[in-house]
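Subject: design request, 515 residues
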């Protein structure tokens, strides 16, 4: 079997909001790509052995003190390098060209005129529309480079050195606003780097099954199964690999949505026929969370207690040595902090929330995948759409949607409100089009009037976002009539709520979850 990672592209992150998009676009070309921080040790880059490197954009200026700079050694690896925006400016700087502040900043769409269409710009004709986002410009090209594209405002909007296979783009080919961005990236990945299309979900499935079989042998695995897309795909994949050596454990942590425990058990038992063990640990989790209001502490406690429950159940099962869970690539990216453009946003319970000492070895077969790739993999595994298109639900559950103290009463209020939100979203036919839609119980009370009497009750915030992979998101412009129905139902049907608000924040700067 051919290694699906044999041809791969490394993306070095300099802090651009589009970095994840670059990796996704390469993967859409069926070539594996991975993101690393710009200051990753050179030895790790060599070990990764990429067939090409892409330098992302970023908010810095190369001529400023402390500007992020990667190891110059990447240019001695004899692999093609593509610099995007800041990446182009950095390449210019490292090869002793000159970068300066532009007289006129350039943001938004621009017409790119092609000066040389024999390399990354091949097949674009005389010009194309591109997306600019920069305040600096290339004033003097480095030795060996030539201008391959320009705009009215940027005399050097694209540059190239065909002999060393080094290229720079002042614009962003990874965004949809660049009309031929996919073509440009394909030119780099296929024509210049010489990659083959080995990254498909069918090949990933075969590759993963062989890896799991090799790693597990005749030993036993337990899987953290929540009924969500990720954990269900993991359980089905591992079951495909080792069959009866897998026991899936569904833990009711007391932080689930209304009717979730019953729904998940029926779905798994009747549809996928997995070996499922149900554990009701509600009292344990709620006791551990009593009085805890800090969201990071909530996540850590929940992650730790999950493992403790699994360890206890594993002893009952017998000789389980492995724990399979649905960690995704965005979880890994957001949970890794390094000195530079990125910082830890929050601890994902699948990653940073785990204790340092466990009696299990981890199996995380989805660790390299984005959410949409997981759904494609689920299709390969013949998992029904009813499961694959479930909206994401956070590992810590309602603990991070009940802001502040977690009590039975507050959980009840949120469950009832959240059930109304999902019911109305589905009735409107919007469920599949929305990444996540849910209710949040705020830690404040407001004055209201019900039946001519003054009330002082809770506030529910509605959150609905669109996203491709959870790394960025935009709020959904829900119809006013729908918002009105949801608000009226919650206030009328959920005792203890007298106000409903709608969150119109995007990610960034906000996160999807409130905690």
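Subject: RE: design request

Done. Sequence follows.
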């Amino acid at each position: 079997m051919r290694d699906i990672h044999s041809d791969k592209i490394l993306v070095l992150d300099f802090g651009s909001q589009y970095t994840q998009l670059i990796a996704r676009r390469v993967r859409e070309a069926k070539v594996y790509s991975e993101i690393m921080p710009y200051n990753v040790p050179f030895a790790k880059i060599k070990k990764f052995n990429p067939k090409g490197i892409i330098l992302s954009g970023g908010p810095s200026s190369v001529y400023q003190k402390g500007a992020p700079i990667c190891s110059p050694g990447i240019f001695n690896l004899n692999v093609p390098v593509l610099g995007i925006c800041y990446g182009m400016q950095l390449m210019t700087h490292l090869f002793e060209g000159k970068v300066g502040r532009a007289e006129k900043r350039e943001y938004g769409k621009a017409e790119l005129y092609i000066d040389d269409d024999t390399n990354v710009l091949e097949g674009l004709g005389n010009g194309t529309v591109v997306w600019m986002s920069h305040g600096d410009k290339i004033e003097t090209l480095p030795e060996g480079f030539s201008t391959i594209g320009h705009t009215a405002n940027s005399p050097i909007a694209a540059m190239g050195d065909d002999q060393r296979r080094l290229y720079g783009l002042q614009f962003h080919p990874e965004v949809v606003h660049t009309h031929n961005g996919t073509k440009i990236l394909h030119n780099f990945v296929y024509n210049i780097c010489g990659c083959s299309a080995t990254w498909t979900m069918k090949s990933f499935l075969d590759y993963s099954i062989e890896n799991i079989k090799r790693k597990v042998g005749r030993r036993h695995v337990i899987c953290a199964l929540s009924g969500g897309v990720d954990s269900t795909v993991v359980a089905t994949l591992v079951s495909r690999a080792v069959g009866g050596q897998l026991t899936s454990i569904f833990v009711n942590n007391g932080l689930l949505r209304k009717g979730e425990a019953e729904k998940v058990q029926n779905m798994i038992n009747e549809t996928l026929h997995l070996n499922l063990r149900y554990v009701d640990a509600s009292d344990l989790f709620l006791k551990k969370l009593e009085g805890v209001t800090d969201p990071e502490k909530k996540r850590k406690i929940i992650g730790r207690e999950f493992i403790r429950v699994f360890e206890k159940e594993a002893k009952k099962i017998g000789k389980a040595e492995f724990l399979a869970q649905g960690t995704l690539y965005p979880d890994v990216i957001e949970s890794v902090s390094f000195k530079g453009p990125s910082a830890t946003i929050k601890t994902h319970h699948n990653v940073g929330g785990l204790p340092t000492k466990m009696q299990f070895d981890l199996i995380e077969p989805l660790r390299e995948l984005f959410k949409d790739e997981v759904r494609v993999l689920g299709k390969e595994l013949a998992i029904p759409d009813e499961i694959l298109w479930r909206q994401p639900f956070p590992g810590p559950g309602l603990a991070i949607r009940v802001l502040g103290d977690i009590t039975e009463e507050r959980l009840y209020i949120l469950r009832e409100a959240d059930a109304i939100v999902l019911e109305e979203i589905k009735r409107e036919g919007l469920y599949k089009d929305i990444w996540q839609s849910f209710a949040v119980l705020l830690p404040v009370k407001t004055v209201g009037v019900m039946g001519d009497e003054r009330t002082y009750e809770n506030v529910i915030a509605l959150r609905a976002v669109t996203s491709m992979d959870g790394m960025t998101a935009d709020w959904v412009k829900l119809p006013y009539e729908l918002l009105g129905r949801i608000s009226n139902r919650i206030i009328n049907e959920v005792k203890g709520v007298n106000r409903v608000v709608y969150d119109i924040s995007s990610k960034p700067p906000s996160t999807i979850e409130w905690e």
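The longest strand covers residues 98-114.
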